[in-house]
User: Fold this.
Amino acid sequence: MSGPKYELFFAVRLRLLGHFLGLFLLVTATLTLVPFLVALVVGEYHIAFSYGVLTGVLLTTGILMQKMRYQGQMQLNEAMVLVALIFILLPVIMTAPLVAQGISFADALFETISAATTTGLSTLGAIEQYPATFRFARAWMQWYGGLGIVVFSLALIVRPGMAALRLSSLEEPDDLVGGTRAHARRVLKVYGALTAAGLILWLILGGEPFPGLLYIMSAVSTGGFAPTTGSLADLDHLRLAWVVTLGSLAGAIPLALYQQSLRKGWRALLQNLEMQTLLAAGVISSLVLGLSMLGQGMPIDFAARHAPLMAFSAQTTSGFSSMDVAALSTGGKFILILTMSLGGSIGSTAGGFKLLRLLILVGVIFHAVKRMTVSRHVVTEQRLGGERLGLPEIQDALMIILLFIITVLLSWIPFLLYGYSPLDSLFEVVSATGTVGLSSGITSSSMPDFLKGILCLDMLLGRLEFVAWLVFFYYRTWFGRKREQ
Assistant:
């Protein structure tokens, strides 16, 4: 059996994985040169040394591994295994410079996983007291982590269905590797343009260059790592907070949609179903959260300032905070929990189980109701945004929503056993699984290492949307008949 339909019947080839992991190490070495140079510029030479040593090790290992040869095209299961391995290896590799700065391994690993998955949760307090290179490096890691997940989405979304690709303006590849490379070039142009535009707007409105760079890199990647502990609350002007929020919104839109809008006009951007749903969800959650704040007795000007910022932060899964989440009522926290779960768009840097899958779920319910009102002999099709939805992609969408809920519930139990508040624990687990980064106050250096591990697992599972991990741990992925090496 051959062809994409049967690729999962072939076990992965270790030589192929080794070759591409070698290329990954070479890319990582190149990316690591950036914080190395920043450390030199700002005079933090001890940090520059650790990044320089790491770069040398990555280059040497990568050159050796990429010489491994293989035959044939990459299989779909190999692509998913490769993505999973990268998101395991990258955080582990990048802990070395942090540990060299005196950060414990547990906190360093938590920080790098949060950065690579563009989550933004942190166990470290008083971020402004850490070296400038450290603050830059974690924002930089979020930036290229967000870029990576959008590029890898080509491999990850192929499985959930071709309608999902078309609705997100992605193109179905003839060859997975070649298609991914072409997709990467297109995405990099858009990603770089969004970052540059955000930084220019920040500077025009009076923001300082270095903090602005860190904010915008974290915003476009919907990562949420701010250069100060208070996040948006530490900004002097509301207009700068909205620059960051607009950057987050831009990152939560399918990046391929920007190129499509250049070809077909900006109406294509506004008429996109996911774009419309994202804006509508953000506005609705802002209004509901604002009413909840007013119900608590908060001043109307306070609610008008913070409700939209917090709601869009949760909706885009960027995780920037303009106020203390602990100050919200039970209802306000529940609103953010729901919003964080929904997330942004497929083909974007946002997390959550994605709005497109919510639309598919709603469509399934309406289709079931419609079937009850017509003759059993009438054939009806389920469609979304003009695209016909097949049973496999409906099943996959519902599976991811179900796995998201199961992961949240199972991760919630250990927090309850440790005696944490049920609502705050649920908030924290949803934030991690949705790769959001908003915190109810539980996540800190004093949190038990076991619970840090739970949240790290949630971030990894949520970032790769479970499918890649299911393939990774499927026994036939590793054992069975293989194509020629």
Observations:
- The chain has a mean pLDDT of 88.
- The CA atoms of residues 120 and 437 lie 4 Å apart.
- The beta strands are 383-384, 387-388.
